[in-house]
Design brief:
- By secondary structure, the chain is an all-alpha fold.
- It is built from seven helices and no strands.
- The longest helix is centred in the last third of the chain and has 29 residues.
- The radius of gyration is 15 Å and the shape is globular.
- 42% of the residues are buried.
Length: 171
């Protein structure tokens, strides 16, 4: 089970890396949703309950945020409500103090995903990935550690690419 979990986790890692190179926020969310579903399976297979439960909420969050253009989901309340749902699920899947790393990382990411543009979302990854990295290190999720490291690097690359593209279009 552990090996299968890590293999699935590495596939998720590749998708997350690609997602931060996409300029369109809706496409970024679709790719991240597939990657998050794979992460759920990975966490379940390696026995990381908090990671599994919180990523289920992340899938729900992504679907809601993808549909932000629907009247019911347009308010600024949605990211905060989703973060609160995440806090509730965290209480149910609590594994110890190390759960705080993934909880805080994913809650911050949730608010940023709901309120920020793609560039600011990439910037938020510079804070949230290290938090989730610590959780993955404690749970010995090698693919999770790789995923967060590559997400961090990919976010930096995406930030740089965006700045260069913006300078080029402004010139």
């Amino acid at each position: 089970m552990q090996i299968a979990g890590h293999i699935i986790g590495f596939i998720s890692t590749a998708l997350l890396f690609l997602s931060y190179q996409v300029f369109d926020k809706k496409r970024l969310i679709v790719i991240q949703t597939v990657a998050t579903a794979l992460s759920c399976i990975q966490y379940l297979l390696i026995g990381a309950l908090s990671g599994f439960a919180l990523n289920i909420v992340c899938i729900t969050r992504n679907i809601l945020f993808y549909n932000r253009d629907k009247k019911l989901l347009t308010g600024k309340w949605l990211p905060f409500a989703t973060a609160l749902l995440m806090a509730g699920v965290s209480a149910l899947s609590w594994e110890g103090l190390h759960s705080l790393f993934i909880i805080s990382g994913l809650m911050i990411n949730t608010v940023c995903m709901g309120l920020c543009d793609s560039q600011d979302l990439r910037k938020s990854i510079l804070l949230t990935s290290p938090l989730v990295f610590v959780y993955n290190t404690i749970k010995l999720s090698y693919s999770g550690m790789s995923s967060e490291f590559l997400s961090f690097c990919s976010a930096i690359i995406g930030i740089i690419r965006y700045v260069k593209a913006k300078k080029k279009s402004d010139a």
